[in-house]
């Protein structure tokens, strides 16, 4: 088991992307038990500078949260997600699997094709299963890359209303149906997902 633990450790250190048990099994010699080896790796790195994290059904080494400041690098932010993209991403994350019609119903405006296409290009959103309803509409779900970026094991770890309010993220938005109503994405210049941030 000590040798299997070393193998798993080597594979995880060699890749930046999370690795599933199936992938580990395919790389390691026949008869190995990567699931058990992962338990040993996790214990070995408890309290260390990096630790083993689970992202959906895959595993990866990530910097310990309290040492994240050491990895920070100041750069000029050229672009940011538009409000339409942020709202669309949030709706998909909290209501997945969500269809385009459901997203539009929640937002109250139509969603431009470019908004979802760009979220897919960012690899934060992917196509889900088609709904077994008339027209068989396609659904959208968040990806493992989205979860990894925000440090989540799965979508159930997203903050709830109470956490969002305590963080002050909901105070600046009026309640639904009161003022500040957006127009259609097409009329609102939402053809582009990003807005320049150099003003």
Structure notes:
By secondary structure, the protein is α+β, with helices and mostly antiparallel strands. Helices cover 37% and strands 17% of the residues. It has helices spanning 2-14, 21-27, 34-44, 83-95, 100-107, 113-121, 144-149, 161-166; strands at residues 19-20, 50-55, 58-63, 79-81, 98-99, 125-130, 138-142, 194-196. The strands form three sheets. The protein has a three-stranded antiparallel β-sheet with strand order 1-3-2. A three-stranded antiparallel β-sheet has the order 5-7-6. Strands 4-8 form a two-stranded antiparallel ribbon. Helix 1 packs across helix 3. The chain is globular. Mean pLDDT is 79; it is low at 178-199.
Map the helices and strands.
Elements (H helix, E strand, L loop, with lengths): L1 H13 L4 E2 H7 L6 H11 L5 E6 L2 E6 L15 E3 L1 H13 L2 E2 H8 L5 H9 L3 E6 L7 E5 L1 H6 L11 H6 L27 E3 L3
Helix pairs in contact: 1-3
Instruction: Give me the number of helical elements.
Output: 8
Structural shape: globular
Contiguous low-pLDDT stretches (5 residues minimum) are 178-199
Class from secondary-structure proportions: alpha+beta
Distance between the termini: 57 Å
Radius of gyration: 21 Å
Q: What topology, given as strand order, has the largest sheet? A: 1-3-2
Overall helicity: 25-40%
How many strands in all?
Answer: 8
Strand content: 15-25%
The overall pLDDT, averaged over residues, is 79
One letter per element, helices H and strands E, the order comes to: HEHHEEEHEHHEEHHE
| Major sheet details | 3 strands, antiparallel
């Amino acid at each position: 088991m000590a040798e299997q633990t070393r193998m798993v450790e080597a594979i995880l250190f060699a890749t930046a992307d999370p690795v599933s048990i199936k992938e580990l099994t395919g790389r390691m010699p026949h008869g190995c038990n990567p699931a058990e080896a992962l338990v040993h790796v996790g214990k070995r790195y408890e309290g260390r500078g990096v630790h083993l994290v689970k992202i959906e059904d895959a595993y990866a080494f990530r910097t310990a949260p309290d040492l994240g400041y050491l990895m920070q690098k100041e750069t000029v932010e050229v672009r940011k997600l538009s409000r339409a993209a942020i709202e669309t991403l949030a709706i998909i994350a909290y209501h997945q699997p969500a269809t385009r019609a459901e997203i539009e119903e929640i937002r109250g405006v139509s969603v431009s094709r470019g908004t979802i296409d760009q979220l897919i290009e960012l690899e934060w959103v992917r196509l889900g299963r088609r709904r077994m309803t008339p027209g068989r509409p396609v659904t959208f779900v968040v990806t493992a890359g989205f979860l990894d970026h925000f440090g989540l094991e799965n979508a159930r770890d997203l903050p709830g209303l109470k956490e969002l309010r305590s963080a002050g993220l909901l105070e600046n938005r009026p309640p639904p149906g009161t003022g500040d109503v957006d127009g259609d994405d097409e009329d609102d210049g939402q053809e582009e997902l990003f807005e320049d941030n150099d003003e």
